[in-house]
Amino acid sequence: MHIARVSSAPGAKGIKEAKASGIKVTAETCPQYLYFTRDDVVRWGNYLKMTPSLKSKSDVNYLWQSLADGTTDAVASDHGLSPRDEKELDV
Q1: pTM to 2 decimal places
Q2: Residue 73 catalytic?
């Protein structure tokens, strides 16, 4: 099983537990989840609204740790273009 777009500490912890119990699972996160937090949405607005949503600084820190300890196996681009006019909508 492969889990994509891991964006939170609870998600990474679940993957770590699964691996420890012998479940064959791989996981990836994305650059945005390693850099931005929900606080950045205030400044950047819709440009940082995504699914899954951005989380807290403690989640970002845990995701970095999960990369370092091998819980998270890869960083993937998760590129999916959203047209600028859609990002600029007031939603």
Answers
A1: 0.87
A2: no
